[in-house]
């Protein structure tokens, strides 16, 4: 894998470290996958398709092409894809064993920056539909649980001046495309 991340040698060193880290994670993941396939073999059709893929496509820097997971890391941002929840758990176990305290002890991002699955953020809450989870950051929960008078004071303290207008007072366009009514958008 060839990647240049900026002009400084430090960023290239960080990327080389990230590539080496992911190679080790993939080695650990392949071992966990091998154990799992003994306990719970793949369907014949799936196994045949993966073997065909291995036969026709060369392995990359990390593992064979017939794997049901993938991971790339750009400097300090790892992005992984897995097929199925049990495999996702195995991957997290492999990643933690290499990058966590018992491995390289690399600093991981704070919990509020970590993501699992396709997530949708809306009004401060996050929905991970594939996992069936919804979560709201602590500071948003405290604000939502407070009485309305406190919420107005919090909103004005942020410099917004007032809470966002109700839907019937939000910006609208006339037939010419001009804004008929608007308000401060960053509240």
Question: Which features characterize this protein?
Answer:
about 15% strand; about 190 residues; 5 helices; 2 domains
Structure description:
- The protein folds into two domains: 9-108, no CATH class; 146-181, no CATH class.
- The chain is 41% helix and 14% strand.
- The chain is built from five helices and seven strands.
- A hairpin with a 4-residue loop joins β4 and β5.
- It starts with 8 loop residues before the first helix and ends in a 6-residue tail after the last strand.
Rg over CA atoms: 24 Å
Number of domains: 2
Distance between the termini: 44 Å
Give average pLDDT, whole number.
74
Shape: globular
Query: Helix share of residues?
Result: 40-55%
Low-pLDDT stretches are: 154-162, 179-187
Order of helices and strands: HHEEHEEEHHEE
Structural class: alpha+beta
Assembly state (oligomeric) = single chain
Give the number of DSSP strands.
7
Query: Major sheet: size, sense and barrel closure?
Result: 3 strands, antiparallel
Spatial order of the strands in the main sheet? 3-4-5
How many helices? The count is 5
How much strand content do the residues show?
Answer: 5-15%
């Amino acid at each position: 894998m060839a990647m240049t991340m900026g002009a400084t040698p430090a960023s290239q060193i960080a990327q080389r470290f990230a590539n080496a880290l992911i190679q080790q994670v993939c080695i650990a993941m392949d071992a966990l996958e091998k154990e799992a396939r003994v306990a719970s073999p793949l369907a014949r059709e799936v196994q045949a398709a993966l073997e065909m893929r291995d036969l026709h496509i060369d392995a990359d820097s990390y593992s064979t092409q017939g794997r049901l997971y993938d991971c790339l890391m750009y400097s300090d941002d790892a992005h992984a894809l897995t097929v199925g929840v049990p495999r996702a758990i195995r991957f997290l176990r492999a990643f933690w064993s290499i990058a966590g305290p018992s491995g390289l002890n690399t600093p991981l991002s704070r919990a509020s920056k970590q993501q699992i699955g396709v997530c949708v953020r809306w009004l401060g809450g996050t929905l991970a539909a594939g996992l069936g989870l919804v979560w709201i950051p602590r500071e948003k929960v405290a604000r939502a649980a407070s009485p309305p008078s406190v919420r107005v004071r919090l909103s004005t303290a942020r410099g917004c001046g007032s809470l966002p207008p109700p839907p019937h007072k939000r910006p609208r366009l006339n037939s010419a495309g001009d804004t008929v009514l608007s308000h401060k958008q960053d509240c």
